[in-house]
Amino acid sequence: MKSILAILFIAACSEANQTPPGTRLRPILNPREAAAFTPASFLQGWAPPTPILRPADFKVGAPGGFGTLQEAIDAAIRTNSPTRKYIYINPGRYQQVAYIPPTRVPLTIYGSSEATTFITFDLSPATTGGSYGALVGKFFPPASTAHGIFASCASRPIIGTSCSNVLRVDADGVELIHLTIENFSKRPGSDQAVALTIEADRVQADRRSDTGVIFAPSTPDHKFGFLVIGSTITGDPAFFATHHGFLARTWDAGQPRNGQVIIKNSKLDPVFNVAAPYAASTTGRAYNGNAAPVRDVNDPRFARFYECSILFIAACSEANQTPPGTRLRPILNPREAAAFTPASFLQGWAPPTPILRPADFKVGAPGGFGTLQEAIDAAIRTNSPTRKYIYINPGRYQQVAYIPPTRVPLTIYGSSEATIFITFDLSPATTGGSYGALVGKFFPPASTAHGIFASCASRPIIGTSCSNVLRVDADGVEFIHLTIENFSKRPGSDQAVALTIEADRVQADRRSDTGVIFAPSTPDHKFGFLVIGSTITGDPAFFATHHGFLARTWDAGQPRNGQVIIKNSKLDPVFNVAAPYAASTTGRAYNGNAAPVRDVNDPRQTRHSSLKGYGGIWEPKWHYVIRRRRINISRDKRF
Question: Is the pTM of this model over 0.85?
Fold first, then answer.
């Protein structure tokens, strides 16, 4: 059963409040208007590189780091190097202020997780210059590269909003990764204290805001201001109950001026008032949007805040996602969708946010094992209940690896999925003898996975279940910043697999091959795969041909219908919108249930349902939830 309930807001299944041109309190772009607002328009020739985390040049905090972030920034800038410098902040809560002045040295500042690394301070814009100097002067001695910024703020009678930032970036090309930056000033009245100020270009960072307003653009003289695309806007639990957050307000820099924010193809959680999501300006001007049927979206008389928050990039309409959908693409209604929650699938398990800690074992030069399997074996032999971390140095590793059942929880990670590949050409049509000759060197008799290897080698033909590049039979494994690919491309129905998971509570990013993302084999389970808060996309060729598929049923010896539910996710136009599901692995035609009244677990229909998303190609032991992931269809079989 494959069904889709396509919604923007978790709380409702209607797009009625997003019909162009919208209302004066919430104007909505039509497709023609939205077409002008693309990343290329905003970035003007800049192609933002994917940030890559490399070993730190400088560290902050114990063990072995500078006492303050500013000291590390100063040390990096003093290298005067055009080569990017990496500053790692050890987990902890740092009550500090830091400024990055203009510099030719590109900087990446990163932690292990935004849940464990905090740069925080209580700094109100109402602070006097003298009090400000007493509070933060210790971070900016005369020799500091940022002393000039500090001195300028300290000279003011009242520092104001522009000097109340915890982190200020005046340098181009800065990257901020896995950090939380917060200003916990909570004075009564209109306290406009700021956590992060960016007075620079080409800066990349995750984004979160405080008690109310996410954006306050000061881009009145620019046709293009802020573009939010392919993102999730959410909030702390209190906002889900009160809906008192705001998407944006205009920043009045001394006079009424209208900056711009465009929000496209993103998911908005119900943390604000749907009918009136924009606040009055910083000087109290009432919000005034342009909802005229024919309008100039850059008319300076109106606030330039617009949305085209849609499921498909190609259009601003949800017309093809009305429940119950069609036989080729069934859509869940709100009542049906209510049963499919992370809690239903995870049955009491609360997946922790993966945290990257220093490696216990490494793979590749310098200083690592020659194969991933050797590192896995070494970690398992510790027999420790404490999680072990395996770091893979950048490179392309033509290897196969298996993780047998073990009590040792494992995290296998790299610096970027763009630089680390575990890859092999392994067809399911390979004979057991050829398989042994190809991969036996990775599994000597002493290997913890020798038994899995021997079982596959004993088969006349190894089949799909032994064609995996990486197999996981252990619970609780985490994969972060890796690409796992099987580049077998034999003619016919070659079902080679990059990653097989025969375990529970595994967390990984997800990408698939030339067509099908999911092939669930969960016929005996009420809950199979749940994809939530994710983006399903593909390589450029799929945007042109739309020949990808969201899913097919995995027929394990007989016709059986596994389950996939996709909720609150964004689907790029990489497949046929009207018929996004493929025939099963044995060629059975897809058969969805589009009856107005239906049992979504009816075994006669294919159980693929979507609630704004869909996807599968590995076999689950029980069931999985994929959250906040980027699921990609590429030309190779990749995970």
Answer: no
